[in-house]
């Protein structure tokens, strides 16, 4: 299991309201007890923090708010001493606009003394279009054009994310070598791998054509022209040859817009370029892809679509590549609020989602706080939000667009990235045990009841159930190796599947609804062969032929 830490929100050790490396170190026993094998640490590098540290100005320095390189190596030692590993966030599609490479690059093609600027091609520069506009119609992920005119250089630079995150020019061999040097440096410090941010955006279609427009979008997202681009595999193979092959590393690439077939190719055990990828299909289930504006409009997701997406990835990667299994991270709403029920059935549905994640084929990921069923937050005022994407949306729609503030706020409540970034809820004290000072972003008011201390004290909590699932996966090879087969494909409430090897079978029954489900025994073998391994409710040990599953009930049976 990989446990994801968003350091700014995990644990503050010095009362400045910002989580830090010493804070994480103080919680290593908690992570170890839960059963984390690997920690994925979101960026801790030097950064102006325009985008939560995904805008790096020095790849080989730690942001002072988080600590020092010494604190980092203490953390690494503490993890290794407990048999855990650490993967760093590798953000190399772009840097901060305060990175020295960018400061040099914007000086122009030639320097005042007439020599060629060695950094001139480190970023993607283009002149204005013939009519004096941006070079093309590409939009940024965070709204608006993906191009910004730099007054110093007199040209536009590409930024697929914020204007403070200029895209590096991977076509330039020296840029690639700089990145490989930096990666080797971290691996030589003892880190165990990388989570690679937006890794399939590195190669852009060279002539930068306009993107097709949906609706009346002024600046469409040009995924067609920058996802899985023409030279991507070449770059990743080179990275593997120059860096990764020389170390024992785990890599997971963030890769929206990848099909299972491509995913199998990227993660193939011998021919692949990465250990795993994060695919995004289940993250799109509640989005209306045909109508991208207004941004963050949520539509109901369907269980049929979840089954379809999951099944495709489970089948195509089986024996070919390796899945990463996740329903949440620092960019998306809390999984229990999005795919479960964060009211009456919070505990039950959080356990059901955990059952799903920990019984599929692939490596399960836990985002900090999901192990106690942390929920979305509803701040009353935009002034309480911190995320650049959220604040841009507000500016576009409300401040500049004159739209209805309440309507935008409600979409932020449902979809905003700050849902995942409120401080870790350790206890019921005013700072939630996260800080003794003023937290950089508000604590979710429900921390008085939803917190680690309460979860540890309650044998029926999401925490203890998740821990049991983690142990189960370690004990049962069928969870790692078994083939996935869907049962009752058309059932509107129940998600039922088996995992099968030559010697074992697992049967998973998940009632993804607020209504009870009654059914006949769905699997081939008679119930007597099956032993109930786990349930999020007190279920019968000897399953009957007719089953009734309560709302959000999950059961895992095992047959030898
Ligand atoms: O996210 C990039 C990414 O692929 C998603 O933001 C995706 O584009 C979006 O959800 C689609 O709607 C990574 C980081 O995880 C994120 O925190 C950063 O802001 C971003 O890259 C830029 O570095």
TrEMBL record:
Transmembrane segments: none annotated. Pfam families: Alpha-amylase (PF00128), Malt_amylase_C (PF16657). Gene3D superfamilies: Glycosidases, Golgi alpha-mannosidase II, Oligo-1,6-glucosidase, Domain 2. Keywords: Glycosidase, Hydrolase. Residues 4-421 form the Glycosyl hydrolase family 13 catalytic domain. InterPro entries: GH, GH13_cat_dom, Glyco_hydro_b, Malt_amylase-like_C, O16G_dom_2. SUPFAM superfamilies: (Trans)glycosidases, Glycosyl hydrolase domain. CDD domains: AmyAc_SI_OligoGlu_DGase. Belongs to the glycosyl hydrolase 13 family. PANTHER family: ALPHA-AMYLASE FAMILY MEMBER, OLIGO-1,6-GLUCOSIDASE 1. This is Alpha-glucosidase. It comes from Deinococcus aquiradiocola. The lineage of its organism: Bacteria, Thermotogati, Deinococcota, Deinococci, Deinococcales. The gene is malL.
């Amino acid at each position: 299991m990989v446990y994801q830490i968003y350091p700014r929100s995990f644990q503050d050790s010095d009362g400045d309201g910002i989580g830090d490396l010493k804070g994480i170190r103080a919680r290593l026993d908690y992570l170890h007890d839960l059963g984390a094998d690997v920690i994925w640490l979101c960026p801790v590098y030097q950064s102006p923090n325009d985008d939560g540290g995904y805008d790096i100005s020095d790849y080989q320095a730690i942001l002072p708010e988080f600590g020092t390189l010494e604190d980092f190596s203490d953390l690494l030692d503490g993890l290794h001493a407990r048999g855990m590993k650490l993967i760093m966030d590798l953000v190399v599609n772009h840097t901060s606009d305060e990175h020295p490479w960018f400061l040099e690059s914007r000086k122009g093609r030639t320097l005042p003394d007439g020599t060629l600027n060695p950094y001139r091609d480190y970023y993607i520069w283009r002149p204005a279009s013939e009519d004096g506009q941006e070079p093309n119609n590409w939009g940024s992920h965070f709204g608006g054009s993906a191009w910004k005119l730099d007054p110093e250089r007199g040209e536009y630079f590409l930024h697929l994310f914020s204007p403070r995150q200029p895209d590096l020019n991977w076509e330039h061999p020296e840029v690639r070598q700089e990145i490989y040097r930096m990666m080797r440096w971290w691996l030589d410090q003892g880190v165990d791998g990388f989570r690679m941010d937006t890794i399939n955006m590195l190669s852009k279609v060279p002539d930068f054509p306009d993107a097709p427009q949906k609706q009346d979008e002024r600046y469409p997202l040009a995924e067609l022209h920058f996802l899985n681009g023409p030279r991507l595999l070449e770059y990743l193979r080179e990275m593997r040859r120059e860096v990764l092959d020389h170390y024992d590393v785990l890599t997971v690439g963030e890769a929206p817009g990848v099909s299972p077939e491509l995913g199998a190719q990227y993660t193939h055990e011998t021919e692949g370029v990465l250990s795993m990828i994060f695919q995004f299909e289940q993250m799109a289930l509640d989005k209306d892809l045909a109508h991208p504006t207004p941004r963050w409009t949520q539509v109901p997701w369907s269980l049929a679509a979840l089954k379809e997406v999951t099944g495709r990835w489970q089948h195509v990667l089986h024996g070919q590549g390796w899945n990463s299994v996740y329903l949440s991270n620092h960019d998306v709403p809390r999984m229990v609020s999005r795919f479960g029920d964060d009211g009456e059935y919070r505990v039950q549905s959080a356990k059901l989602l955990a059952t799903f994640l920990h019984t599929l084929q692939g490596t399960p990921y836990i985002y900090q706080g999901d192990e106690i069923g942390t929920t979305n937050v509803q701040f009353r005022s935009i002034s309480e939000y911190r995320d650049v994407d959220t604040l841009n949306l507000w500016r576009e729609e409300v401040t500049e667009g004159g739209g209805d503030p309440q309507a935008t706020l409600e979409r932020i409540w449902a979809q905003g990235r700050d849902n995942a970034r409120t401080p870790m809820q350790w206890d019921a004290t005013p700072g939630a045990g996260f800080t003794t000072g003023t937290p950089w972003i508000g604590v979710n008011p429900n921390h008085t009841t939803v917190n680690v201390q309460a979860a540890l004290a309650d044998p029926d909590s999401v925490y203890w159930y998740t821990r049991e699932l983690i142990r189960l996966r370690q004990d049962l090879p069928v969870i790692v190796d078994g083939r996935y087969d869907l049962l009752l494909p058309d059932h509107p409430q129940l998600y039922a599947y088996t995992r099968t090897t030559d010697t074992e079978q697992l049967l998973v029954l998940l009632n993804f609804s607020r209504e009870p489900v009654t059914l006949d025994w769905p699997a081939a073998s008679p119930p007597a062969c099956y032993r109930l391994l786990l349930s999020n409710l007190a279920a019968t040990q000897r399953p009957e032929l007719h089953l009734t599953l309560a709302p959000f009930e999950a059961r895992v049976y095992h047959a030898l």
